[in-house]
Design brief:
Elements (H helix, E strand, L loop, with lengths): L2 H35 L5 H17 L9 H16 L2 H24 L8 H11 L11
Helix pairs in contact: 2-3
Length: about 140
Amino acid sequence: MTLEDMLSFLMARIDSIAMSEESLKTKFDVLGRVLYKKGIITDDDIVESVREQGKLMKAIGVTQAELSDEEVRAIADNIIVWLKGDAATITKSMEEYEQRLRELASQEMKKPRLDVASPAVLSELDKITKGGKSGGKLIM
């Protein structure tokens, strides 16, 4: 098996996992929406379940601290919006998220960068600047 065959196999497997995950997510959304619309799941149930999930994650060592009330409410609100199928709010939220990502990327691009050249590149640069003569001091 060649490296190309292995990479193709891995990429196909990743695609398969991604499709499976999307399928499960869609099924979960549909089932959750049915339960929510029938009143079997309430907003308070979701808030309390998010809070319990945060406590469980801390108890098993996945997180260092429990979720704050603000974090619990934000997560629960996000779930509730999906269960209600509120397309306008979801679209607005996605646009705000994309805008924040663009702002963060812009800020990262403005930060000064420190690039380090290899000794071979420094040696070549030294030769060029001294007209082909070597022997200058470089910090390596």
